[in-house]
């Protein structure tokens, strides 16, 4: 993968996204798409993730996040460019 094909985004997911297995869903999708980064719940009820990998994989990941797992209801997904994570793999972080 070239630097031209590397996309890193901070993703904020709003809606009914906590207590429905959304973090596990995000980890499964990120792992399936071979992405690096992390996911965590935020105290304001949103879910936040940092995701980094090939542009095509990041786009597919964001598409999956707009749907979410059964029982969730996504009302918006905000995307912001970010620096890639320092560690490889995809991890769950403590809530903030």
Gap between N and C termini, in Å?
A: 33 Å
- Main pleated sheet: 5 strands, mixed
* Overall residue-averaged pLDDT value: 96
Structural class: alpha+beta
User: Helical proportion?
Assistant: 25-40%
Strand order of the largest sheet: 4-1-3-2-5
Q: Could you state the order of secondary-structure elements as H and E?
A: EHEEHEE
How much beta, percentage-wise? 35-45%
Tally of helical segments: 2
The strand count comes to 5
Computed over alpha carbons, the radius of gyration is 12 Å
**How does the overall form come out from the CA principal axes?**
globular
Question: Residue ranges: pLDDT <50 for 5 or more in a row?
Answer: none
Q: What does the model show?
A:
The protein is α+β, with helices and mostly antiparallel strands and 96 residues long. It is 25% helix and 39% strand. The chain has two helices and five strands. It has helices spanning 22-32, 55-67, and strands spanning 6-16, 36-41, 47-54, 73-81, 90-92. Strands 4-1-3-2-5 form a five-stranded mixed β-sheet, with helices on one face. The model has no long low-confidence stretch (mean pLDDT 96).
Describe how the helices and strands are arranged:
Layout: E1 6-16, H1 22-32, E2 36-41, E3 47-54, H2 55-67, E4 73-81, E5 90-92
Parallel strand pairs: 2-5
Antiparallel strand pairs: 1-3, 1-4, 2-3
């Amino acid at each position: 993968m070239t630097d031209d094909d590397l996309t890193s985004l901070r993703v904020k997911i709003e809606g009914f996204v906590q207590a429905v297995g959304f973090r596990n869903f995000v980890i499964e999708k990120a792992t399936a798409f071979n992405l690096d980064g992390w996911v965590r719940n935020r105290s304001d009820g949103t879910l936040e993730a940092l995701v980094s990998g090939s542009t095509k994989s990041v786009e597919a990941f964001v598409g999956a996040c707009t749907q979410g797992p059964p029982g969730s209801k996504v009302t918006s997904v905000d995307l912001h460019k970010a620096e890639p994570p320092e560690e490889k793999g995809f991890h769950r972080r403590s809530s903030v």
